[in-house]
Amino acid sequence: MISTDIPLVELHRHLDGSIRLSTILELGLLHNLPLPAKTLEGLRPYVQVSTPQPGVMKFIEKFEWMTGVLVDYAACRRVAYENVEDAFNEGIDYIELRYSPWFMAEAHHLQPEGVVEGVIDGIRAGERDFDIKVNQLGILSRHYGPDIAMKELNAQLRFADQFAGLDLAGDEAHFPGEWYTAHFKKARDAGWHITVHAGEAAGPQSIWQAVTELGAERIGHAVHAPEDPKLLDFLRDKGIGIECNLTSNVQTSTVSDYPSHPMRLFIDKGILASINTDDPGISAIDLHYEYEVAAPKAGLTPAMIREAQENALTIAFLTEAEKQALRAKKVGSEHGLAHAG
Fold it and tell me: Alpha helix (H) ranges present in the chain?
């Protein structure tokens, strides 16, 4: 269960994988797009995953209609705003929303800078309207190659003060992190934090590379880390966080089932592993599901789940003052509820 005396934090959620089914339908009909169905239930199997997919890239195909309705910058702003509203409605106190502007721009030939501007505007409006703190993470999509990745990075750096960090995502198996060292040096020079998808579709070496060459402070997924015991010790000793995504890893067939997930091992080892949703619009889950259903299925005890919730705040891309403010606000709201009761 989620501990109500600790801030609820989500570190690994793709904004462009968190678009409401109703929004996809509404925008599709509004713009006369060739949707595969014209009702919510008809559209659902084309957008959401109900059975495990044969690999990460097959799962990513489900993004077709997530990004396919981003016909203009107003649509980008809208889905960003709705991401913030949905996170607030889940009871999340702090969320990091990540997205690849090139990926979002591609379907309708938008400019990545315009996508970034629209998303920033939507997120900031959401923060004003809802009581939730939000940070943005940029993504470089590996599968476009290093040249486009540099263009994507430059589009994000135009708004450098609006981003907390940079991520590398996409086809890990065929586009190694070694191709992106210059990009991540540029991001670190801008003062950004670094998180990298690694050890999901490739082995421990991909994680080593992300940490030693790209400067990763956190790793997304890291499912293959246990294949190298020295790596586990390194992650623990260096305080490098792991953004675990339990349901997503089952749905991409990265793990065969929940009990096979290494998150329990990470917690046992003292590694700063956290619980996250990844792409809740595709997985048809929310953060409560991951805490209350997926985590127990993965063998996590209530104490481990509480530790994972603490870990999320510990490894968040926030200053210590911001973390303390979130804690103080949570304690204040707890006292308020107690007095109200």
Answer: 21-30, 40-47, 56-60, 64-68, 73-89, 101-106, 112-129, 146-157, 181-189, 204-212, 229-237, 246-251, 263-269, 280-283, 287-289, 295-297, 302-314, 320-340
